[in-house]
């Protein structure tokens, strides 16, 4: 052992000595070596995941402060705090302590509002992040599992938000629980017992706030934390994806090193997110529970809205006609099935299943099982972009339906009419969105071809010798051009016979789907085409040559 | 089209005019040349950027100080009425605003400062790093070997009885913890059938608790009603549970305009009807009475019930009419219940069908 001291590294600077002390005790230098200069690609769309992460950190922080004063009991007491309109009113400990946090703890109102705004930001950022991953194809191999982890996080975030929203035990939160209770009870046979178990008997009982509390401050945040750790671990293992462009290949990562640039930008960004949330919390009232009063099963406020992420199931419930053309409540051997509640939830459940399974669905259709580290620009995957647009529209229609009464009063139209329109949009909206998004992608791809072949419109007009005026087109430099031509031209993969020489029904369906995905496509410009376009100025033929529909039908 | 499953990234050059994939694509020109920023070439600009960043950090320091000034400097004393402009209320709002601004500036100053520092003064050369496979074939083979060794050495394969009993034990061991969930709640569903309404219980106003005379109920008015015996319940004897089932809406309608089925003829008092206020959809309290159309509207999902037809659903997601509470008047002229509801109130549950059957059996 003594021999090691002879060779021991002697740092000269003070920071060097501290680093050396830590390293010789904790052995961190391999980690510094691994991460210190790791390359991260930079793009504004990579920011949303970060925002979600930072919002979660702020939720942990503000939530811990709230937990110092929040009293998760339904024991009833008479309020004697400083908020006059509620003095002398019977209320639960939970509601009283939320009033107390709002009015008697200095900065408590700020903390509550910070917590609630962070919750909204968390779910919002998570959703946009998922959309980014979807539309750029970042979920493809090797990142399928991380997509699944992301989907789990999305569900957990919604549950976290709902459980938190229930805690203050005001009229709105109690009403939310009331609806959750009825949705549980709608589950055939076991649902009623699940509700009795959840509430410790009948709704509302005296148990639910305590149970929601332990779920909200321990179980769900712990699960979210675990999922985030797994998620980030996988990001490090896979390395980040990057957008296509000059110098960016499947085998490299182009970007900035963690230290110092990336760490500074990402770290700085945490403070910016915090600043935005603090500004919102300081200036904008959210969930003014003192206006609603403690939970009481009798009153309800018209026009009251759940948090936005609860909008889509609520809207789905609103759209379903419960008694038209007949009552949707069926009795089978004495068991009652409330289909008016169950039916609208089925498409939502299917949407979630499809969301989890999408990486495998797409892989099955395209037969593409390669590693993808370079992202797709959404226009270059028209089929996927169209599916995403349809799903988003489906979600958005239901979210709008949750505000149908507000839409009606705001635009002075009949409430029932709004519902009829939204019912139509529920079915037609996704189809239209699919068609429009696909057409738009194809149009954008053609425009890209046009730009590659003929340059960018410069806005300058030039007079030709024979008197004609034309706009000067500036040719692209090779870097810009490469950005527009570097994408994959997927082909239809027709149904093939399997090893036994048989084309299975499943395979036929896959073949049809593949055709549907890819029969209209626009190929990237090739060097020959570019040459041809420059040789003789026969613009439209060259542009048209990108569409392959005819050639594929053989 | 090539075999797409060999794991190596490749581009399928797809255009039909081609004679070879390689020829058919633009070559990757590589990273574009680095363009220096002003701060890279002009030391003055760099100095300016540095001063900007310093200023932002100073703003952050001032923001944090502002927080403490607002925290200790503003006293919110005395009762808070509402969000109207009484003295302590506006103090509270001001304090909340300044606390928020202080923290926001404290954070923005650091955040924007550091980002600005990174953008203007740290090197902005893009670097390239090679990717490695998630795992190499070699690693996989090694790992597999290790697993095989572990498996062999454990002897699980050679001693099936050992394996099977372990599986059995491992399945059973967690079950006690599922069992422990049993007492989360009771399983007697009959509580869902009954409310505290009963023969002779007075209808009283919510929340004042005063009884209602038939003559108080004028045409077009609506009363939010609870049973008189509700006030005997403390919060710990299920006050809210009972209230959640027992709330009732009371209205007088023109008897000529109402259709009443034969078995309900004596359930109203000269056109005064009482209906459960709990929506049959997912249980919101029905709060809106449109007196000219004789509709009850649920604010949650807009189910609309027609009072002239025993609260049949005419719009929205509810599938069942609101249960009616049979009422009459007592000797003093106050409205009282004739009995409890004849069916469970509120949202549907699977076992509700059996409840209805039994309850109607009881009633006959
Ligand atoms: C994981 C993500 C989380 C989300 C989405 C979330 C969301 C929410 C929401 C929407 C509320 C209602 C706030 C209001 O009154 O307006 C709430 C309340 C609360 N949260 Fe969270 N929260 C999260 C994590 C946490 C954590 C980690 C803790 C504590 C360690 C916590 C503690 C509390 C407490 C004590 C309340 C009740 C106090 C009050 O309502 O004023 N939360 N939460
Ligand atoms: S709860 Fe009344 S309509 Fe949904």
UniProtKB/TrEMBL annotation, chain B:
The chain crosses the membrane at residues 53-74, 94-115, 161-181. PANTHER family: CYTOCHROME B-C1 COMPLEX SUBUNIT RIESKE, MITOCHONDRIAL (PTHR10134). Iron-sulfur subunit of the cytochrome bc1 complex, an essential component of the respiratory electron transport chain required for ATP synthesis. The bc1 complex catalyzes the oxidation of menaquinol and the reduction of cytochrome c in the respiratory chain. The bc1 complex operates through a Q-cycle mechanism that couples electron transfer to generation of the proton gradient that drives ATP synthesis. CDD domains: Rieske (cd03467). The keyword Transmembrane helix applies. The lineage of its organism: Bacteria, Bacillati, Actinomycetota, Actinomycetes, Micrococcales. Keywords: 2Fe-2S, Cell membrane, Disulfide bond, Electron transport, Iron, Iron-sulfur, Membrane, Metal-binding, Oxidoreductase, Respiratory chain, Transmembrane, Transmembrane helix, Transport. It is found in: Cell membrane. PROSITE patterns: RIESKE. It is a multi-pass membrane protein. This is Cytochrome bc1 complex Rieske iron-sulfur subunit. Belongs to the Rieske iron-sulfur protein family. Its main location: membrane. Residues 1-43 are annotated as: Disordered. It comes from the Bacteria. Residues 245-336 form the Rieske domain.
């Amino acid at each position: 052992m003594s021999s090691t001291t002879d060779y021991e590294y002697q740092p000269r600077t003070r920071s060097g000595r501290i680093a050396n002390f830590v390293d010789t005790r904790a052995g961190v230098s391999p980690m510094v070596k691994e991460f210190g200069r790791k390359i991260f690609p930079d793009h504004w769309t990579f920011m949303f995941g970060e925002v979600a992460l930072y919002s979660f950190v702020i939720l942990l922080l503000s939530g811990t402060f709230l937990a110092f004063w929040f009293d998760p009991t339904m024991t009833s007491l008479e309020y004697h705090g400083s908020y006059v309109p509620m003095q002398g009113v019977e209320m639960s400990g939970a509601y009283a302590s939320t009033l107390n946090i709002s009015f008697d703890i200095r900065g408590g109102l700020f903390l509550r509002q910070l917590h609630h705004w962070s919750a909204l930001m968390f779910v919002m950022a998570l959703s946009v992040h998922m959309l980014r991953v979807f539309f750029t194809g970042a979920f493809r191999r090797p990142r399928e599992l991380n997509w699944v982890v992301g989907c789990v996080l999305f569900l957990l975030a919604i549950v976290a938000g709902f459980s938190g929203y229930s805690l203050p035990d005001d009229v709105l939160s109690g009403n939310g629980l009331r609806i959750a209770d009825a949705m549980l009870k709608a589950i055939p046979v076991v649902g009623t017992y699940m509700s009795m178990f959840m509430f410790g008997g009948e709704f509302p009982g005296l148990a639910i706030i305590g149970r929601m509390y332990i779920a909200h401050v321990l179980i769900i945040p712990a699960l979210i934390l675990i999922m985030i750790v797994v998620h980030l671990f996988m990001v490090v293992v896979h390395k980040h994806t990057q957008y296509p462009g000059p110098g960016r290949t499947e085998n490299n990562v182009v970007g900035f090193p963690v230290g110092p640039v990336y760490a500074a930008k990402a770290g700085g960004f945490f403070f910016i997110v915090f600043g935005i949330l603090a500004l919102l919390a300081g200036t904008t009232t959210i969930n003014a529970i003192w206006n609603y009063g403690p939970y009481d099963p009798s009153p309800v406020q018209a026009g009251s809205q759940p948090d936005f992420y609860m909008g889509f199931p609520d809207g789905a419930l609103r759209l379903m006609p419960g008694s038209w053309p007949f009552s949707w409540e069926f009795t089978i051997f004495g068991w009652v099935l409330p289909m008016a509640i169950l039916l609208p939830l089925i498409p939502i459940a299917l949407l979630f299943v499809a969301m989890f399974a999408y990486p495998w669905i797409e892989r099955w259709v395209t037969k593409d099982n390669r590693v993808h580290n370079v992202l797709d620009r959404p226009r270059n995957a028209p089929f996927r972009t169209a599916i995403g647009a349809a799903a988003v529209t489906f979600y958005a229609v239901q979210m709008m339906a949750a505000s149908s009464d507000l839409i009606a009063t705001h635009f002075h139209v009949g409430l029932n009419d709004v519902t009829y329109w939204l019912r139509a949009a529920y079915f037609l909206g996704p189809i239209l969105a699919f068609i429009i998004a696909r057409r738009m992608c194809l149009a954008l791809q053609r425009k890209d071809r046009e730009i590659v072949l003929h340059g960018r419109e410069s806005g300058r007009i030039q007079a030709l010798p024979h008197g004609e005026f034309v706009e000067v087109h500036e040719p692209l430099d090779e870097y810009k051009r490469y950005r527009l031509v570097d994408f994959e031209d997927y082909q239809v993969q027709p149904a093939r016979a399997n090893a036994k020489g048989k084309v299975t029904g499943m395979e036929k369906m896959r073949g049809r789907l593949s055709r549907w995905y890819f029969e209209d496509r626009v190929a990237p410009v090739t060097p020959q085409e570019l040459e041809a376009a420059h040789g003789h100025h026969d613009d439209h033929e060259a542009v048209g040559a990108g569409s392959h529909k005819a050639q594929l039908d053989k | 089209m090539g075999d797409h499953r060999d794991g190596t990234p490749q581009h399928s050059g797809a255009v039909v005019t081609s004679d070879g994939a390689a020829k058919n694509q633009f070559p990757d020109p590589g990273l574009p040349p680095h363009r220096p920023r002003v701060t890279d070439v002009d030391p003055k600009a760099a100095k300016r950027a540095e001063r900007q960043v310093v200023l932002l950090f100073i703003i952050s320091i001032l923001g944090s100080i502002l927080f403490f000034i607002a925290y200790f400097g503003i006293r919110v004393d005395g009762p808070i009425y509402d969000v109207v402009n009484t003295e302590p209320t506006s103090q509270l709002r001001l304090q909340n605003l300044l606390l928020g601004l202080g923290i926001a500036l404290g954070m923005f100053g650091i955040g924007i400062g550091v980002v600005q520092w990174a953008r203007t003064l740290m090197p902005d050369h893009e670097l390239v790093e090679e990717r490695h496979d998630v795992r190499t074939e070699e690693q996989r083979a090694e790992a597999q070997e290790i697993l095989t060794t572990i498996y062999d050495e454990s002897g699980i394969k050679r001693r099936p009885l050992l394996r099977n009993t372990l599986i059995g034990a491992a399945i059973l061991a967690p079950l006690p913890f599922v069992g422990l969930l049993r007492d989360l709640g009771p399983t007697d569903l009959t509580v869902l059938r009954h409310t505290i309404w009963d023969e002779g219980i007075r209808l009283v106003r919510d929340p004042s608790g005063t009884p209602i005379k038939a003559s108080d109920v004028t045409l077009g008015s609506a009363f939010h009603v609870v049973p008189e015996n509700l006030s005997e319940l403390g919060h710990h004897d299920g006050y809210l549970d009972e209230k959640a089932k027992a709330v009732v809406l009371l209205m007088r309608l023109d008897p000529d305009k109402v259709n009443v089925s034969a078995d309900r003829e004596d359930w109203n008092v000269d056109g005064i009807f009482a209906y459960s206020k709990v929506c049959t959809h997912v249980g919101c309290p029905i709060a809106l009475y449109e007196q000219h159309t004789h509709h009850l509207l649920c604010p949650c999902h807009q189910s609309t019930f027609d009072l002239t037809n025993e609260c049949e659903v005419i719009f929205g997601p509810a599938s069942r009419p609101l249960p009616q509470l049979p009422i009459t008047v007592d000797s003093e002229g106050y409205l009282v219940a004739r009995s409890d509801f004849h069916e469970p109130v509120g949202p549907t549950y699977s076992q509700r069908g059996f409840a209805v059957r039994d309850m109607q059996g009881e009633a006959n």
